[in-house]
Amino acid sequence: MNDIQQTPSVSRPRWDGSRVLFDIEHDGRLVACAISRGALQDMSEHRCFKTADLLRCFGEARTRIEEIAIAKFRADGEGVSGVISIWADDVDDQTPEVSAPSGN
Question: How far apart are CA 12 and CA 27, in angstroms?
Fold first, then answer.
């Protein structure tokens, strides 16, 4: 399996009025993705209303957003067609992994 560093965004993110649309490449396949305004605001922990602010928030959280998109893509099966949508619940469900301390 490829990790997120091998699945870069292949398009510039764009605001469609309700969500940021972006594409990633995974295993040679172009995957259309979107993140809702609510999910983006939850990730940035502040409210953004202007398009430029939303796209800046996307850029700041891009790595995490792409990780969530890949996780959803893998969980839904690689036969998914259509857009992989990231909602506020998806952001809440994706807590950062914490390494367990090694020891006895």
Answer: 19
Tens-digit pLDDT profile for residues 30-46: 889 999 999 998 888 77
Rounded to whole angstroms, the Cα distance separating 84 from 28 reads: 16
Q: The pTM is what?
A: 0.77
Of 93, 19, 95, 12, nearest to 59 by C-alpha is 12
Token pair 């800046």 is at which residue? Answer: 56
Domain boundaries, the chain: 13-93
- Classify domain 13-93 by CATH number: 3.30.160.140
Q: Look up tokens 């796209």; give the residue.
A: 55
**Can you tell me the distance from the alpha carbon of 68 to that of 86, in angstroms, rounded to the nearest whole number?**
7
Beta strands at 19-26 and 14-15: parallel, antiparallel or unpaired? antiparallel
